Amino acid sequence: MGLKVTALAESRLEKLKSSMSSKSRMKLWIIRITTSVLIWICLVQLTILGETWGPRVLKGWPPCLSHESAAVLAVKSSSEVPARVLPPKRVYRNNGYLMVSCNGGLNQMRSAICDMVAIARYLNVTLIVPELDKTSFWADPSEFQDIFDVDHFIMSLRDEVRILKELPPRLKRRVELGVTHAMAPISWSDISYYHNQILPLIQQYKVVRLNRTDARLANNGQPMEIQKLRCRVNFGALKFTPQIEELGRKVVRILRQEGPFMVLHLRYEMDMLAFSGCTQGCKQEEVEELTRMRYAYPWWKEKIINSDLKRRDGLCPLTPEETALTLRALDIDPSIQVYIAAGEIYGGERRMASLAAAYPNLVRKETLLDPSELRFFQNHSSQMAALDYLVSLESDIFVPTYDGNMAKVVEGHRRYLGYKKTILLDRKHLVDLIDQHNAGSLTWDEFSTAVKEAHAERMGNPTKRLVILDRPKEEDFFYSNPWECLEPSYEDEL
Questions:
Q1: Where are the transmembrane segments (predicted)?
Q2: Handedness of CA 46, 49, 52, 53 (dihedral sign)
Q3: What is the distance between the alpha carbons of residues 426 and 43, in angstroms, rounded to a whole number?
């Protein structure tokens, strides 16, 4: 009897051990499954964050932490570097992806980028970092991130529009296969055009590429939030790279050590003269060279040009000789430093002689910096133009001799910085006065008085932007006078 009880007890013990072993294995499998699920969730979160936040995730934010706790850890980890306060990410239903290919020089592309951000925001689409022009006259191979701080651009606008450095892989493959839609939008279009015409295409194709993006959004008649966003991009989001910013600051420091300085945007380069057909003061062989160049570029549509007539209409950049007379007539101090923001002046020292005689303290970035400091910027015209842009913003006086894209954008930026002195030359009136003076019809005092009177209200002071209904090309450019973003504002008067 005792043996049976012992056997029964051993049997029950074996069953109990077997049951416990099965439960242990079950618990182990549950733990493994739970761990796998948690890892999978973290990987999904990392992928989502990576698409939006890019390299910031890889710079030390643990993928499974909330943004708030990660920010707290970032503050604790470094007492020397202050935590960057980011705007909250805007959440919206994404209607598709917008790619843009900018055309022209630095400032033409700059204003186009501002417009495209505003359009992407209005259409609730994801914007891919813009592609820059590499086929224009300057043939600059620079990418967006070579000129602008791309991470600042993306993160500073994340409460308005989602911006990615490139398309997600699936859509990128579609673009490579040509399964997309590309077009040039209609110039000077109202924002409603993009809602009614472009948005349906984005929804149909998922990805749309807009080409030739300059002057595609109208200057006036846009919603106030659109206008303010254009300014926010231009004055806040589009920062140059740290290397360009630091070199620009160095040039300004060198100039400031010697006293006040003026930036002269002397747009008297070969490409400008060939394009415009303005040959005042040029030798016959130079006229022929400029004409050949104009015919060599088929997209420069105007070929036969009367230089004298165009000059009288105020459509030519002032020559260096005309510029010297104008600055003297305005009583600009002859001892002031004159920083030449331009490329190589056509005609060289011969054409610069009168300006150098009137203003001997002529300087350029090439004369202020060591060649080694500019080595990485050579053959990159947009990066060189970015340096001139930074110096132009900081100058005591800014004088453009032609109302091109840089002149217009710098004018608007200087208004934004507190209406810094910007002399906007009335070229049509000036060449008439200069011709009268050279012919002896006006004495120097009469000439100087007339020049001052003509420019008394053309010093970058607050004014309304000119609106010409049905003629948008002739009205004032938005970026030269973005009054919606300035103080005092003329919103109540318009």
A1: 29-49
A2: negative
A3: 62
Tell me the residue type at 2.
G
- 317 vs 276: CA distance, rounded Å: 9
Give the type of residue at 141. Answer: P
pLDDT digits (tens, 9 = 90+) for 264-293: 999 999 999 999 999 999 999 999 999 999
Tell me which amino acid residue 229 is.
L
With a pLDDT cut of 90, the percent of the chain lying above it is 74
* Distance between CA atoms of residues 132 and 107, nearest Å: 11
E strand or H helix that includes residue 261: strand 261-265
Q: In whole angstroms, give the CA distance from residue 151 to residue 164.
A: 10
Distance CA 143, CA 147 (A): 7
Amino acid identity, position 162: R
Is the Cβ–Cβ distance between 144 and 129 less than 8 Å?
yes
- Give the distance between the most distant pair of CA atoms in the chain: 144
Tokens of 262: 């003026």
- From the list 246, 243, 220, the residue with the least C-alpha distance to 475 is 220
pTM for the whole structure: 0.82
Burial 374-397 (b: 16+ CB within 10 A, else e): beebeebbbbbbbbbbbbbbbbeb
pLDDT band at 317 (very low <50, low <70, confident <90, very high): very high
CA 190-194-197 angle, 5° bins? 120
For the beta sheet containing 261-265, the strands, ordered from the edge strand earlier in sequence to the opposite edge, are: 362-363, 337-340, 261-265, 397-400
